[in-house]
Amino acid sequence: MSIADMRRQYSMGRLTEEALTQHPIDLFKQWLGEAIDAKIPDPTAMTVATVDASGQPSQRIVLLKDYDHDGFVFYTNLGSRKAKELAENPKISLHFPWFFMERQVRVCGVAEKLSVAQNAKYFLSRPKDSQLAAWASQQSQPISSRELLMTQFKQMKDKFANKDIPLPDFWGGFKVKPSQIEFWQGGENRLHDRFEYRFDAEAGWSTQRLMP
């Protein structure tokens, strides 16, 4: 079968005006909770899209680590490609691909760095091996082999064997302050339900239905 002929009906649910919340994060909380309860793989996984100085976009999967009415939080090496691109252009897009529930959430906004105190609080809550991995990897930089990476990991493990692992100064988090959030629910015959929230500093959040 040609991939052009691969298709199926989306019929798991609807999204109506009555189901919308005043603040989009309240609807996001509901949908994320339902994704977790449904035990879909990696419900907190999101695509993070950034743009470099030449205008070339790039995307990668990152785990959401916190959220509130002010935005969405993730952590990374501050020397990584995404962090460098955000330093030049803080505009960012997130995408939650809950395909198993025939749902998507798309977020557009601006990324702001978290404080050292916020970074340290989360870093110290991570498993020790995850802390060591942050020290061992210069994220996005070339490396000659996996063996060398594992050697660097072991070196860090030996270095911090009998002591607390400090927060690296090259590691931290971002909070994405959203200006636009879209909720997508698959519908039969490609007549999907799409609602977009937009933020205005004076009027707050407003919603509109989008054509599929």
TrEMBL record:
Pathway: Cofactor metabolism; pyridoxal 5'-phosphate salvage; pyridoxal 5'-phosphate from pyridoxine 5'-phosphate: step 1/1; Cofactor metabolism; pyridoxal 5'-phosphate salvage; pyridoxal 5'-phosphate from pyridoxamine 5'-phosphate: step 1/1. It catalyses: pyridoxamine 5'-phosphate + O2 + H2O = pyridoxal 5'-phosphate + H2O2 + NH4(+); pyridoxine 5'-phosphate + O2 = pyridoxal 5'-phosphate + H2O2. Its cofactor is FMN. FMN binds at residues 60-65, 75-76, 81-82, 104, 139-140, 184, 194. It is an enzyme of class 1 (oxidoreductase). Keywords: Flavoprotein, FMN, Oxidoreductase, Pyridoxine biosynthesis. Residues 171-212 form the Pyridoxine 5'-phosphate oxidase dimerisation C-terminal domain. It comes from the Bacteria. GO terms for molecular function: FMN binding; pyridoxamine phosphate oxidase activity. Gene3D superfamilies: Electron Transport, Fmn-binding Protein, Chain A. Its EC number is 1.4.3.5. Residues 33-157 form the Pyridoxamine 5'-phosphate oxidase N-terminal domain. Binds 1 FMN per subunit. One of its GO terms (biological process) is pyridoxine biosynthetic process. Pfam families: PNP_phzG_C, PNPOx_N. Substrate binds at R7, R8, Q9, Y10, K65, Y122, R126, S130, R190, L191, H192. Catalyzes the oxidation of either pyridoxine 5'-phosphate (PNP) or pyridoxamine 5'-phosphate (PMP) into pyridoxal 5'-phosphate (PLP). Homodimer. Belongs to the pyridoxamine 5'-phosphate oxidase family. PANTHER family: PYRIDOXINE-5'-PHOSPHATE OXIDASE, PYRIDOXINE-5-PHOSPHATE OXIDASE. This is Pyridoxine/pyridoxamine 5'-phosphate oxidase. It comes from Marisediminitalea aggregata.
